[in-house]
Design a protein that fits this description.
By secondary structure, the chain is an alpha/beta fold. The chain is built from eleven helices and 14 strands. It holds the Pfam family Hexapep.
Amino acid sequence: MKADIMADGQDDDRIVEGYWDVDRLVAELSDARSRWRQSQQHHAEYGAEGFPSRDNMAKITQSLCGALFPLRLGPGYVRLHNEDAYVAETLQTVLSRLHGQIRLEQIYALKGQPVEAVDKEAARIISAFADGLPALRTLLDTDVDAAFLDDPAARSVDEVLICYPSMLAIIHHRLAHRLYELGAPLVARIVSEIAHGKTGIDIHPGAKIGPSFFIDHGTGVVIGETAIVGARVRLYQGVTLGARSFPADEKGHLEKALPRHPIIEDDVVIYAGATVLGRIIVGSRSVIGGNVWLTDSVPADSNVRQAKAQYEVTSRVQVSAPHRVHALVEEATDGFGENI
């Protein structure tokens, strides 16, 4: 057997030639990209300056979480005595990196503008974002308190911060929403999708969410771009705050940014699997039951639930295995099976 034949299961990194034409593939892929860019000039791809990076934004967001909650979401060496020093060092680094990502987005958003305009806009966004971090931390404290108070399984606020995927999603959303408001929607969307991938909770950065927000369990929750959620709202897993229809223009293209998602007023509870669609209003203190499909507004203090299901309870043993019933009876008469 030839020495260069690889054993079963062993990687073979040798370059095999003759099965493809690399030069032709490169040329055809280049042509495909050129055709795409030519046809998409009205919303062109980012150019030679580069893209905001999802990998970089994941690291930036993780550092921001640590700066906001250093003792719980920061590195293990942070203690009370060095907390402020860690926050100062982290912010100096992470805000510089975030500024770079925002600047890349502005190069695209301000296409054709002089570099001075790009730098000025990026500086405005990062400055306002940094100034808003203390208020954002205060807002997040209300979310942590809401989770602790509304979940009987929560033993401490520390557990909420460290363990709850919904808290991770909410922190990311608060950061993303601020960036979205300030004029960096692409960077904001990257932040929200990082949380989506980690938690299964999909909150568009455009959604406006009030204080003391809590998502119990969380997997499968979807909150659309133009949704408005009031104070002290509680959602359960699988809830959708979505759009019912998508208006199109005369060319058949979907119109963007139209209000199309629900308005959820204060103190509303929406249970697992409920779907709330369209620009409707769910009035304050209302309760939307599990698996409800709601497309009409409801007034304050409403209780919306499904019609009671009709079902019949029968003995599974008697229906599916009558011979087993006889066997159990015989065992019981012999002194066995009293506890069956």
